[in-house]
Write a structure and sequence with these properties.
By secondary structure, this protein is an all-alpha fold. The protein is built from eleven helices and two strands; from the N terminus they run H-E-H-H-H-H-H-H-H-H-H-H-E. It binds zinc ion (2 copies).
């Protein structure tokens, strides 16, 4: 039971910071926050993503490229151009690392205002940090596992961020329904997104990339957006006003 709760905390915690910080803040900048809050978000992203930490810089730029080049050969990840899910994951990893280590020239429209905390990112992305998390997860499993099947959850903790990425970038471009007919394959995975905290409304998001709320229909409740609204109401972050027509 402890193991299941542990994995759920990492799943939804890691997902929240991917959606809230990396996606909606770093890539799309749907809200602003103080430097102090931004640094706290960097640290909490590291705490929850742990072994699979993604930097706001690498994620933000790569994700903007995904929106600009969706389903073309320049898309960093697309089921239309990658042979299978694992080939796509590998290519995504390579492009992410090239961006993160600044080995490639990037157009300024993709880098504009993407938050970067160079010192922290190089520590949080280091082999040393990843190894520490891996040792911690293994020790946690050794101590708390009560049935052998629970060990099957260990790889999920190690690969949390890539698993979250592949659910949206692979499955969210193949399966599901559309609210908007677009020149790309984006889909909404669920009518109520219990699994991906709103990220699953991927067709809505491709249509309105700068909108903080990914849900459009009444049943498309976006849990990350509800938390964003709460943080905005409490004054921790400042939502930018956006006018979008309702469906
Ligand atoms: Zn997409
Ligand atoms: Zn996006």
């Amino acid at each position: 039971m402890v193991i299941v709760i542990f994995v759920l905390v990492l799943w939804y915690g890691g997902l929240f910071f991917q959606s809230f910080f990396l996606h909606r803040y770093a890539a799309h900048q749907v809200f602003t926050m103080s430097k102090g809050m931004e640094r706290l978000a960097f640290i909490l992203t590291w705490v929850f993503q742990g072994a699979s930490y993604l930097s706001a810089y690498g994620y933000g730029i790569m994700h903007r490229m995904h929106h600009a080049y969706t389903d073309t050969k320049d898309d960093p990840h697309s089921p239309s151009h990658d042979a299978n899910l694992f080939a796509m994951m590998w290519k995504t990893k390579t492009i992410y690392q090239d961006i993160n280590k600044q080995r490639v020239q990037i157009d300024s429209r993709f880098t504009k205002n993407v938050p970067q905390w160079t010192k922290f990112d190089s520590f949080a992305s280091s082999r040393f940090s990843r190894l520490l998390w891996i040792i911690f997860y293994i020790l946690f499993f050794v101590y708390f596992t009560t049935a052998s099947w629970q060990w099957l959850l260990l790889p999920v903790t190690l690969l949390m961020a890539p698993i979250h990425g592949v659910i949206i970038n692979w499955f969210g471009h193949i399966y599901g329904y559309v609210n908007y007919k677009m020149k790309n394959t984006s889909k909404n995975l669920f009518r109520f997104d219990f699994l991906m905290m709103g990220e699953g409304y991927h067709n809505n998001h491709h249509k309105h990339a700068s909108r903080a709320n990914f849900g459009v229909k009444w049943y498309e409740i976006d849990i990350t957006y509800l938390i964003i609204k709460l943080l905005d109401a409490l004054g921790y972050i400042q939502l930018k006003p956006v006018r979008v027509k309702k469906l």
